[in-house]
Structure formats: C-alpha cells, structure tokens
Design brief:
Elements lengths: L1 H12 L5 H9 L16 H16 L7 H11 L16 H21 L1 H19 L6 H13 L6 H14 L49 H14 L17 H9 L7 H16 L3 H20 L4 H23 L9 H26 L7 H23 L6 H18 L7 H17 L10 H20 L1 H13 L12 H25 L2 H16 L8 H14 L4 H20 L11 H21 L3 H23 L7 H4 L3 H7 L11 H16 L26 H10 L6 H12 L16 H4 L13 H14 L14 H21 L16 H8 L6 H24 L6 H20 L5 H17 L7 H12 L10 H25 L1 H31 L6 H11 L5 H12 L2 E3 L15 H11 L10 E3 H28 L17 H5 L15 H21 L6 H19 L7 H18 L2 H17 L4 H18 L34 H23 L1
Antiparallel strand pairs: 1-2
Length: about 1350
Amino acid sequence: MEALIELCDLIAQKPVQLSEKLAWICSRCPPPGYLLAGSPRVTRSQLNAVLAIARFLSKCPNQTDLRPKSAVLEFLQSVPASFRQSFWPQSFGIDSISVFFSEFLGYVLKATELLPDFATEVAGFMGEIVISASTIAGDEMEISRVFLTSLSHNFPPIVPSDAERLVSCLLDQFAIVGPNSPKEVMPPSPDTSSQSSPIGENHFQQNGSSSPGNEVSNVTGSSSSSASRLTDDAATVSSRGTGANGLSIAWRSSVDQLGMNLGFNDGGGGGGGAAMLRQQVASFLDESVENLKKQEIAFKLLGHILDKVPIKPEHLEQVRMVAKKQLQSLPAFLKIRKRDWTEQGALLKARINTKLSVFQAAVHLQIISLASIDSDGKSSKRLLLETLALLIDAAEACLLSVWRKLRICEDLFSSLLSGIAQIAVTRGGQLLRVLLIRLKPLVLATCAQADTWGNSQGAMCESVMKTSCEIIEFGWSKDRAPVDTFIMGLAASIRERNDYEEQDGKEKQAIPIVQLNVIRLLADLNVSINKPQVVEMILPLFIESLEEGDASSPGLLRLRLLDAVSRMACLGFEKSYRETVVLMTRSYLSKLSTVGSAESKTLAPEATTERVETLPAGFLLIASGLTSTKLRSDYRHRLLSLCSDVGLAAESKSGRSGADFLGPLLPAVAEICSDFNPTVNVEPSLLKLFRNLWFYVALFGLAPPIQKNHPPTKSVSTILNSVGSMSAVALQAVCGPYMWNTQWSLAVQHIAQGTPPLVVSSVKWLEDELELNALHNPGSRRGSGNEKAALAQRAALSASLGGRVEVAAMSTISGVKATYLLAVTFLETIRFSSNGGILNGDTSLSASKSAFSCVFEYLKTPNLMPAVFQCLTATAHRAFESVVSWLEDRISETGNEAEIRESTLSAHACFLIKSMSQREEHIRDISVSLLIQLKDRFPQVLWNSSCLDSLLRSVSSELPSALVNDPAWVATVRSLYQRIVREWITSALSYAPCTSQGLLQGRALRMLNACTLVLWNYEFYAFAGIPIHFNFYLEKLCKANTWQRVQHTTDVVSLLSEIRIGIGKNDCWTGIRTANVPAVMAAAAAASGANLKLTEAFNLEVLNTGIVSATIKCNHAGEIAGMRRLYNSIGGFQSGTTPMGFGLGFGLQRLRSGVSSQQPQPESESFNEILLIKFVGILKQYVNIAEKGGEIDKSAFRETCSQATALLLSHLGSESKSNLEGFSQLLRLLCWCPAYISTPDAMETGVFIWTWLVSAAPQLGSLVLAELVDAWLWTIDTKRGLFASEVRYSGPAAKLRPHLAPGEPEVQPERDPVEGIIAHRLWLGFFIDRFEVRIC
C-alpha cells in the first residue's frame, strides 16, 4: 500500500504525463456497476486502489479525467452494502474497516473542499446514506457504527432537505440517559435492546420537563438565576471578589452549591444528601458505555450538520436543549468522588473517559448552535448569559474535579474556555464586562491548583492563558476599561497580605502557589499579547514588590517575579527594558556585598538560587529576546560593564573564587555578542570592557583549557575554599581539567568569536600598567606587588604558548601584564579551536572573516618589549596550530561540513597572502611561514580558485601601501610575491597539472572576456544590420581594461613564461610527484589544448598554451553570449522543432535544491532550449557514427563539445532555473561521448572540456567525476579500449605473444584496440589528476 500511495502522490504532481499510471490504478478498482448490484465482495487490492484514487482526488483538483470521480462516487453509494461483513475481504477485521473508513472519508472531505462539482454530487446522496446507517440494527450495526464514528470526524456535505431529515431522525432516536438536572434524578430506565440503532436507545420526549418552554435548570439557581447572578456580578463584584491573600473564591458557583445540596461536602447534607448522591451515581451508572458512545457520535453528527447547513428553528431549539441538559449535568458528574462510584479500575476509567467525551461533544454542539441565533435580539442576550453561566460552572467543575489530570478532562476544559471566548466576541463585546467579572475567579482558581502549574505549564493553565489573551486582545479595541480592571485585579493579587497567624499550615502553603502562578500567568499574557501598554501596567507593580514589598527579601516570590520581569524586558520596549536591567544589575551586584560576611551564613537558600540561577537566566533571556540593534548595543555595554564590576569586586574576596560570580553571566554575554562583528571600528570604552572581561576570564580560569592534555570535564566544584597554590590553579586553567560548569566553557568559546583584538587606541597602553593594575583591588593577593602571583601567571603564560617562551625570558613582564598576555593567548587560541577562526559577521567566508586579522593586530603595535613581542609572536603560532588541528579533525567530513572546512581554509590562506604586503617585516615573515605550512599540510589549497586569484592579483595590481615613497619596500614585497607565486604554481602543477592549467586558463579567460564579449556583441549587431557605433564599444573595451596595470601584468607574464612542464627530468620540483607519471602528463597536454603527439617527449610552456586555450574558450563564450544578445534583441523566433523531452538524469537539479523541473513551455522557444536541442542532437549523432564504425571529424567534434560546454557554463552563471533536465542531459553526453567514441582525439577533447568544466564550475566536480566513473565501468562491461583484448585474441596470428591458449587464436576485431588503449591512458591520467585534487 505504501508504494501505491507514493505512486498516487507522483501522479498528483504530474497527472498529464502519468495518465497511464492513473488509468492502471482505476482499472484495479471494482468494475463500474459491480458494487451497486447484488451482494458484492471487494478484494484487498480493490480497497487499496479506491483509497489511492480518493487520495489522488484530494491532492489534484485540476485533473480532467472522470474515472477517479466515478470510482469514488460509486464506492460511496455502495456504503450501505458495506455494513455486511460479507462485503469485506476475509480476515478484514473491524479495526481494519475503521482505519479504511477514516482514511477514505478524510480524502473525500478534502476532495469536496477542492472540487465544487464533486461536492454537489456527494451531497446529493450522502444524507440518505447517513440516515440509513443511523437506523441500522442487528448484525450490521457494528460496521455501521464504525462508519458513523469515522463520519463524525470527516463529515462531507449534504443537502438541506436531507439535513432536516437527519436531524429529526437523530432527535427521535436520541435518549438523554441520566438526570435532566442534578435534582431531577431520573429512575433507571429499562435497558432496551442495544440493537435498536447505532446511536440511540430511547425516544426523545418533546413535552413535560423536556419542553423548551418548560425546561428549568435545577442546579442551585436555575439557568435564569445564573444569568441574573452574572448580571448582578457586574454591580457587586467588590463584595464578591477574590479574597485577600488567601485568594479563596468568595463567590459560590453552582458547583459549590450543588455539592452542598447533594451532600458531597463532608458534614454538609446528612443522610438525605448521601441518599441523593447514591441515586445520582446510580442514574449515571444506568448509562452503559456503549450508549455513551452512541451519544457522542450523535452530538458530533449534529454539530457537523449545524456547521454546514441551516436547519429549522424548532429543530435548532431542540438540539440546543439536548446539549444544554448535558451541560447542566456535567458539574454533578464531576463532583462525584472516586470512592463514591461502585465501579473501579479500568471499567470506571473507561466510563469517565467516554462520558467526558460526550460532554465535550455537547459543548461543541452548544457553541455551534449559538452561532445560528439572532445575536441582536434581547432573548439572545439572555440565552448567551445562560450559556456563559453553564460554561463557566462546567469549567470550574473540571478544574476542581478529581479527574482533572485526565487528558479528556483537559480537552473538555479547553473546549469550555473556547466557548467562553467565542461568547465574549459576540454582540460587539457587550458581554465582555460581565464575562471578565466571572473569568477572574476562574483564572485565580486555576492558579490555586498546585498540580496545574509547575516547571512546565499544564494543559489547563495553557487553556486559561490562551483564552485570556484572546479576550484581552478583543477587548483592547472594544472596551478597554474592563480589560484594564481585569489585568490590574490579577496583578494586585500578588501584593495582598495575609494574617498568617489565623491560617493553618495547609493554607499557608496554598498562598505562595497562587501568587507564583498568577505571576507566571501575567508574564505569559504579556509575552503573548506583546503590547507596551500592558507591560507598563504590570511591570511597575512587579518592580515595586521587588524593591519594597514582600518580594524584596529572598524567597520563591522574588525568584518568580525576577523571572517575570526579565521575560517582559525581552519584548524590547525601551522603558520596561531599562527599568528591568537596572533592577537586575543592582540585584546581582548586591549579592557580592554580603559574600564572606556574617549575614551570608543566615541567608535563605533562595538568595543563592537568585544569584546562581534566576538572575543569570534572566540576563540570558533578555539577550536572546532583544531584536532592536540599539537596545542590543546598549545591553551589550551594560552586561560587559557588569562583568567588569563583578570581576573587580570578586577578585578581592578572600577564600572565594571570582569564577563563582563571573561564570553565571557568561552565557548571557555570549548571546548578546553573537551578532557583534569584531572587525568593525569599536569604541575604546567598549574595547576596554572586552579587555577587562578576558582579563578576569584568564585570572579566574574560566576559559576552556587550550592544551590538549585533558579534555574539558564537568565542573568538579563551583566554589574553591581557598586560593591554594596559585601556580597549580593557573596551570590547571591552561592544561585542564576544566574546573567549572561546562556551559561557561561553551559560552567563552562563543564570546571569542565576537571579541575584537584586545588592543586599545593608545599605542603605549601595553607599556603603561596603570589600567591593568586598576583591574586588581588594592592589597589583592593577585596584584602587581605579589611576586608569587606574578610567577604563577608567567608559568601559566609559558604553558599556554606551548613552551615557545621560557619563564625565565619573561622576567621583565609584570604579573598584570602576564595576565593580560595570558588572556590574549586564551582568546586568540580559542577563536581558532572553537570554529576554525572565523569571526562573527555576514555569512560569507572571505579573507576579512579570518581571525588572523585579530592576531596580527597585536604585532602591529610599535616599540614592544622583546619579551612581549616573543609572547605575541608565539601566540600567532599557537593560534595557527589550533586552526590546523581544527581542520585535521574535520578532514573526513563530507557535504556541507566539508564545504565549510574548505571555505575556512581558503579564507585563512587568502588573508595570509594579503598580509604578505604589510609594511612590518615580521608580519610578512610570519605570513609567509604560516602560508607555506598551510600549503604543505593541506595541498588542496593549491587548487582553490580564490587563493590563486588572490596571489595573481597581488602580483599584477598596486600594493596597498604603494603611495608611500619607499621603492626598496615595494621591490621587496613584489619579489616576495613573485617567489611565492612561482612556488605555488609549480607545486600545483607537480601534483595536478590538468586542474592547475584549467585554473590558470580560467584566470586568463576572465581577463579576455571583457574584450571578447564587447567585440562579439559589436560583430553580431553589425551582422544583423543594427546601426551601432564602434566607438561606443571601444569605450566599453577601454573601461573594461582600466583595472589592468600593464607594468605589473608584464610581471605575471614573465613569471608564468618561466614555468615549463614535460616528460622526462624536471628541474621545477624535487622528488616523485604526480606529474612524473607519463599518463598524467599526457592528460595534462590534452587539458592544455596543445596539439602534441603523445608518443614524443615534450616541454609544455604553461603561459603560451594557457593563453591560447583561454582565447579559444573565450571565443566560444563570446559566441554564445553574442548569439543570446542577438536572439533577445530581435525578440526570438518561432521554431518548428518539437521541444525535446529531457528524460535523462537529474544531476543539475541536485545543484539547485528545491527547484521543480516542471516549467511551463513558452510559445516562443527559449534560446537555451533551441541550442540544447541542437547540441544534444549533434552529440547523439557522433555516438551513432562511432557505434557504426564511421569516422568522426575530430575538429568538428571538438568545436561542438566546446560550444556546448560554453552554453552549459553560461547557464550556470545565470539566474535562470529552467531546462534543468535538458542541461543535465547535455552534461551527461559531454562526459559519455568520448567514452563512446573511444579514440585518442575524442579523449583529448574530453579531457579538455572536463578540465574546463571542473575549473570554471567547481560545484560540478563531484557530478562530472561520478558520470566519468560510471562511463569507465561501462567500458569494462562492454570490453572497450583497455579492456577489449581477451585470451582468444592472443598468439602469433594476433601478433601478440606468448601463445596463452591452445588452438588457433581468433583474428583481431576490425577496430584497432590500440586506439582505445591510448584513449584510456589519457582518461586514466585525468582520473589520477582529479583524485589527487579530491583526496588532498
């Protein structure tokens, strides 16, 4: 079935192309007329086909085939026959039938929503089917019940006349089993046969107490009295409002009164109440679970009918009364305690679940019935008030019931509140004031339930919050006064006090629960409503409580309020944000003042929780929620200032570690710095705050260990009882294991990515220790006057640098300066070890994102002390080791991770290339050293087009500082670049000569493109007779070449002209390289485009052949561009060629994820499609000629392949997303044609265009290689070229020796296998070249 469903979904996407598949599925359905005659029996395959066809209709509304509709309609009409078990396949149980009906009717309902004609046909007979199913009795009732159950969830349309009949039928057969009201306890009715109908037992009586006119609710206070009480509440809310701090509900709902009347409360009713209770329980027990299920189905069906079709007023009133009676009995049912039921265990749970489902269906029906009344009449207002009273009483009953934890009870509560919200928006909000009066006690009652609120919100509190939000948002624009009163009433409840001496212990525990939950509810309301007026209404009360009220001292109330204000601050309203941040900052700093004092020993545990958990979580929440650039910048400055103050205050605490105080703030700092770009100009004040932060991070050992001796582990302690051995602690911070919470370690890594280099504006600041000394408190054990502390910091600094600088060489470095240098080492090493050394900023990975830009900033500072300079130089090398380790750890990654790795490598290499032009000689030397090491460790960087372009551009363009009149410096830098470029290109050619030449040709091609495109455009316009002045194009040509510096371009030309590769001894490199392999050099000659005989020794001049090949490629690209321009200028033309059906491969589609290959065909064929048809046809002709043994014009074949390659690359460079399958077929033919032809000339062409493709479009590299591997395997299977000769061709007659098999050898085939072997030799050389590039 799964395969049939997948096929159905494919057909729905392409119904025209896959019409044959659709016809096949239709043929598997029951034959036309079969289901409507006699006693049909369907097979399992027929049911699967019908289900698939119904799914197809629900997904494809625009199809024109009538067979699917006919098949579904006929099966629907045969539903009455399906009530017999003989209709279904053998072993097709009732559960399988239920699943089938559910899925089938679900698809039918979706189809009727999409297809109006289909909906009309279904509605014409659906009513009869439902009426038939509802009146079935006997053996067929079980299946009809299953059908009705599925129908109650997916009800298709019916005509109004059938709707009236169905409603009447349901009402006639419907029975209210149980009391009409809590006091009208009905005597047990005789248990009539359960076979009477699928949904009913007794007959609904329309007289007596059941009459709409005479019906009176006997819940203490009738519905009318409830409505009157609702109205009175508006005037007397103050006298019946919520109790003081106890929040006990002063008003009595009908549930409470009902409990007293029935004697449910202990001591409340005596024996009479107990008897009444037993009668009530017995009356509910008289309703069998089976009958309850029937009631649920009936209610749901009535609800669907009212929702789809208007019915007569008398029927509507009867339906409303039936639902109302259920609502009236709901509180009494839920008031019954578990021990009062005679049933227990699974039987009782099944009864409770089923009965609550009936109530939920009745609530839904009642709400739908209200939508059909005249909302402007006086009677409707009274009816709405009655219903509102019933819904609120029922909601409170759910809330107080012992069954409130059941999922169905939570769903019922949600349905009741949804109905309350719908009533609130009726009549233009006229009932809003009365509703909010009753809603507030319900909200408080919800908050009073300890088990409805916890660490994670329960379903009931979520429903209350959702309903409150809907009502507040509606009332905000309609009648704001009662909304303000409602919100302020809830907020004021947290400030009320209680006389604790007059309350017992149990009530004392209930008080904070209510307050805590109200606070959370108000915070949720603010977040959901997201209005500054609401925040400004509540936040002052919260802040006042925190500063002056009960919440000013440590406790659960204060923790909850702090969490609430932080959630409101993250909404981004400036006033509330600033007030909250100031309060939280002051609160956090105040915690440090009590550390170490006698007062700290008597603090409540909540005080520690506030400092360690609540306040840091609030800071993090604000950092995550703020979106305004202005506020994020302000918050970043405030948090860094707080960290600086905390570090300074904590540094002086004796016997404690500052990590305990600074560590909890780090996650918030990491989040607020996540979008900070460290490469922009940073204000000195902010830069000093970053410096202070990292100073304390290094001082307190909060950074993750940067030596890999020990991996970071979970915190072994959060408090150090003493400073202990300073040297041991400092060394442990460097080498591990990590001493603190691992979340702090991750936060430090994220902060590093957004931290600018710690160099302030003053160039002398590193020599001036005043600012650094100010980061210590006077008399601190870690201050500059403590030589022991200084020695410990120097030892840690030496260890962090990997021993590159000895401790003895740091004797001139003070303790604070050593701590600063240690912070720099931590920062710059962590930058590279955490994410490869890529800074925050835009998503592109360019040279400007390399973290080496930060490392080199320190080295630009003039007049550094020798020891400091050694440390900063060692830091640069230490950072380089980290990035090398990061890259090596990801060497086996594939997919997106591999792309990130290669982009990171390219960004660092490009920056190092750029840094070789720095004026500082030591920076140039370090750049060259690191670049050479990077090239040796990761040879793939040699063939990175960005790196090669950066190198050649550096030689051929002006130097960044060339305006300085220093000829010696200019000459030195140019000589350095020329040496590096020569070594770079030579090394690249020695490993992969094909790919390297392709890249060099691509560089030359880009230089020639500006000229050629302009000239080709001019020639085509002239050919078309369009008057265009040549001077116009000449001006463009000059502008295109303005970037070119002739003087420096000659340097590149001279440099490249010196490079030669060839067969035999090569002086350009030492040792055995890939280019020493003859097959690779033969492929390199083919890739260069040179016309050389492969059997002779040769020396290939890289420059000359590269320019020639680049010119050829440029000409072909110009041809395509010129023809496209001409085609567009004349508006295209009509072609009689039939559009091709591109059916091969989806390779290019993988390169453009999410793009559909189905594109509408324009009337005028596109330029790309015309050429695609042409090139694909020509390439196929070459394949046919080769298969027939004919001769192929090698120059024409080369010309065609080159033009096709130019077309393919031009399409990749455009934004067009059409003809993906066509270009995929073209790419496959370009890869396979040389293999089909299998001659040296064809393979030379193949190597030339393959190199062109992978060099110009690196994203095609994997796809081209995959196609070539498939083609190679195909030559093995078909025994071509290298794999053509077999044992039977050996022996003297075949001119091969020795004679390997007895008997006379067969004559060699007509086609000389040597040509195929030479072609495979070229092909193999190209493979070796590409594998060298891919594996490195």
